[in-house]
Design goal:
The complex is a heterodimer. Chain A contains five helices and six strands. By secondary structure, chain A is of the alpha/beta class. Chain A has a five-stranded mixed β-sheet, covered by helices on one side. By secondary structure, chain B is an alpha/beta fold. In chain B, 29% of the residues lie in helices and 19% in strands. In chain B, a hairpin with a 2-residue loop joins strand 4 and strand 5. The chains are: A alpha/beta, B alpha/beta.
């Protein structure tokens, strides 16, 4: 049989076709944001439980008004100072006796919080408050907790909490995961996130 | 007398474009893989605020999205300029959240229901009043795990 070589296909327009597809995907792509601040809403309980009595000095009130101004502990405050103020409040450790806080490094002011377990941040916003401001405030308050937790984790174990959590999630991490979880839990218990929102 | 200059020897040869399709294909595959087609079309403005203490949301199939924001210009004639809630593809009211949560829960396997998270994608210019109402509604439905979806960035960019 006579062998006929097939004519070669011209591949010169391949690039054009690929460009066309590329541009289509470029236009339709929306890389979704899937990061954010995780929160847990308090459940609605129907039983009428007497709310525990909390001393005024253990509450750190943050109020955002309709004009996006911040009122912290009855004083006007700039957003950039909020993180430091929250850290100072949480880390105060002014308690004595059973309520003393052995790991706090704050000023031990008797007028501020007893220990991080007792300290509660109360966040109140008005209906006119802008969501962007609200998120900024939430972010700063979470940052205050994270800062204290990281400091404590560095003191105890020489790494930050973030790193420990990353290791805990990492499948390839070599080490005792149960011990690591205990360490993470300990730091979280020493600086519990007590952020209450007023409805 | 037009006379063409003879090409100087030593001039650079033309760059071969034979590998151009390969490069383009590489880019193409990247975008094909990275693309997630939106399953809902946004009808509200959705400029997310910035935050830096963020956590990553994993398990994308276990997330319910609630969008809040001003209706986009095309819908402003019909729905006004006040912030609205969008569930799936439609504008919704507060009362619709109950049904929305129930249907999302019904569509997931039973053992996965406790892990469902509500992602609140709220425009940064929305008012907290509506967001608080939505949160209250979620509490009633016992959907307590929420996530304020934000972009990664410094909070000074929120204004």
């Amino acid at each position: 049989m006579a062998k006929r070589s097939a004519p070669e296909v011209n591949a010169g327009s391949m690039a054009d076709i690929a460009f066309l597809l590329l541009i289509f995907f470029l236009v339709t792509t929306t890389i979704e944001t899937d990061t954010g601040l995780n929160r847990r809403l308090p459940p609605i309980d129907d039983q009428e439980v007497e709310p525990p009595i909390i001393r005024q000095k253990n509450i750190f009130t943050v109020l955002i008004n309709g004009k996006n101004q911040l009122m912290v502990e009855d004083e006007l405050m700039e957003l950039k100072d909020l993180r430091q103020a929250a850290v100072e409040f949480l880390d105060n450790g002014g308690g004595t006796g059973e309520e003393a806080c052995s790991y706090c490094q704050g000023k031990k002011d008797p007028k501020s919080s007893d220990n991080p377990d007792k300290a509660i941040i109360s966040l109140k916003n008005e209906r006119e408050t802008k969501y962007g401001t609200y998120i900024s405030v939430q972010n700063e308050l979470v940052a205050a907790y994270n800062q204290l937790r990281d400091r404590r984790a560095t003191e105890l174990y020489g790494t930050t909490l973030k790193e420990m959590e990353a290791n805990y999630k990492d499948v390839n991490w070599i080490g005792n995961k149960d011990a690591l979880k205990e360490k993470i839990e300990r730091v979280k218990i020493e600086y519990p996130q007590k952020l209450s929102e007023v409805q | 007398m037009a006379k063409f200059n003879k090409k100087k020897s030593g001039e650079l040869p033309a760059i071969s474009t034979a590998s151009l399709p390969d490069i383009v294909f590489m880019l193409l595959f990247f975008f094909m893989v990275a693309t997630t087609m939106r399953d809902t079309t946004l009808k509200v403005e959705n400029k997310l605020p910035y935050a830096d203490q963020i956590e990553k949301l994993d398990k994308k199939d276990l997330i319910m999205y609630i969008y809040i924001g001003k209706p986009q210009e095309a819908f402003q004639g019909q729905f006004g300029t006040e912030s609205r809630i969008q569930l799936n593809d439609k504008f919704a009211d507060l009362v619709d959240i109950k049904a929305f949560i129930a249907s999302e829960r019904a569509s997931k396997r039973e053992e996965l229901v406790p892990f469902l998270t509500v992602a609140l994608k709220v425009d940064e210019n929305a008012n907290m009043g509506l967001v608080s109402d939505v949160k209250q509604e979620l509490r009633k439905e016992n959907a307590l795990k929420i996530n304020y979806t934000t972009k990664k960035g410094d909070i000074s960019e929120n204004r």
